[in-house]
From TrEMBL:
One of its GO terms (cellular component) is cytosol. Transmembrane segments: none annotated. This is Gamma-glutamylcyclotransferase family protein. GO terms for molecular function: gamma-glutamylaminecyclotransferase activity. The lineage of its organism: Bacteria, Thermotogati, Deinococcota, Deinococci, Thermales. The active site is at residue 79.
Length: 123
């Protein structure tokens, strides 16, 4: 089983959640400290809006998805791991205590991105 902290289109009710739903074992709300969240609008190279999490001084809210291991290659492909996003380990605070999970950090520039200081993205 893998734990992945999601903060955007993979959350329940968002556009890409259906991709992970067949692999989903459990969901736990949580947040990470020391990161900033930005909204990226649809446009050149972006078929729809989605968020970008980068190291920073804030808190980002999302969900920890407990997934079957075979979901990770699918997520790496979706997130263009190594090109647009980098999969890293983060400490997630949850109502059940802290845990480690994978998260995808944005690697590209943030020109034109809208800061989300409250740490919440809604599609």
């Amino acid at each position: 089983m893998e734990r992945v902290f999601v903060y955007g289109t993979l959350k329940r009710g968002e556009r890409n959640h259906g991709l992970v739903a067949p692999y989903l074992l459990r969901v736990l709300p949580g947040w990470v400290e020391g990161f900033s969240l930005f909204a990226l609008e649809a446009g050149e190279g972006r078929p729809y809006p989605y968020p970008a999490m980068v190291p920073g001084g804030g808190r980002v809210f999302g969900e920890v998805l407990f997934l079957k291991e075979e979901a990770l290659p699918l997520l790496d492909e979706l997130e263009e791991e190594g090109r647009e996003y980098r999969r890293v380990r983060v400490r997630v605070e949850t109502e059940e205590g802290p845990l480690e999970a994978w998260a995808y950090l944005y690697l590209e520039g943030l020109e034109g991105a809208r800061p989300l200081p409250e740490g919440v993205w809604r599609g």
